[in-house]
Design brief:
- The chain has 234 residues and is of the alpha+beta class.
- Helix content is 48%, strand content 9%.
- A hairpin with a 2-residue loop joins β1 and β2.
- α5 packs across α6, α6 runs antiparallel to α7 and α6 runs antiparallel to α8.
- It starts with a strand and ends in an 18-residue tail after the last helix.
Length: 234
């Protein structure tokens, strides 16, 4: 039997079975989600069937706006079963990069794949861009045959300094988001050691590969010891 989650009074509740939802007298525009649905739908479309006709609502802001039309009817409803959940989060890759910086040293909790790889992508692009500029300045220093060489050299050292400072600044959030990503698959931070044992034969080769596989795994579908599923809030 499928389990459903609802979004009422700015909070997510569940899980409930279909018969429980039918007895709650919820407004027809109440947002509803269950495992297997890609996006949230509204109650009047999702029930009594889970067919392809379910209205798809892409973002929490959108289903919250839909809910506003029936908010007054729902004010009197107070769920008596199921725990309050965190609404699912949908950000862009750049949004996840900024989130990881804001959660600078937050090692607890879980991070979905989009969050980890969004941070990793922009971290790589920024580091690569700074390295490219520094490399070009090195070439200019080597090619310059006049007094401009000194200016290029100073600029090169400044860029290298910025690169080093940036790398140090993102070290902690990089470890933190890696920890949360491992938590999302049910593993602890200690698995990061696999990528650090490069001086040990075999482990130094296999370890980083194993860690990469763990980082690419999907989220555990339900709440685990590290918190709720970041995709569904369950």
């Amino acid at each position: 039997m499928k389990s459903y989650y609802i979004y009422v009074n700015n909070r997510q509740y569940g899980p409930y079975d279909e018969s429980a939802l039918r007895n709650m007298n919820l407004p027809p525009n109440t947002p509803v989600w269950c495992q297997g649905m890609r996006d949230w739908g509204v109650l009047s479309q999702v029930l009594p069937s889970m067919g392809p006709g379910a209205t798809r609502i892409q973002q929490p802001q959108q289903f919250q706006q839909t809910y506003q039309t029936s908010q007054q009817q729902a004010q009197a409803y107070q769920p008596t079963q199921g725990a309050a959940m965190t609404a699912p989060e949908h950000l862009s890759l750049w949004g996840y990069y900024k989130k990881c910086l804001n959660m600078y040293a937050e090692f607890s909790g879980r991070a979905r794949r989009s969050e980890y790889w969004g941070f990793t992508l922009f971290n790589f692009l920024i580091t690569w861009g700074l390295g490219l500029v520094a490399g070009l300045l090195v070439v200019l220093v080597l090619l310059a045959m006049d007094s401009s060489a000194g200016s290029y050299f100073i600029a090169m050292m400044v860029v290298y300094g910025i690169t080093i400072l940036y790398s140090l600044a993102v070290l902690v959030p990089s470890l933190a988001v890696t920890s949360r990503r491992l938590h999302d698959t049910g593993r602890s931070l200690w698995w990061i050691l696999l990528s650090l044992l490069v001086i040990i034969p075999i482990i130094g080769i296999v370890g980083p590969i194993v860690l990469l596989v763990f980082l690419c795994l999907d989220s555990e579908p339900q709440r685990n010891q590290y918190g709720p599923n970041p995709k569904t809030g369950a």
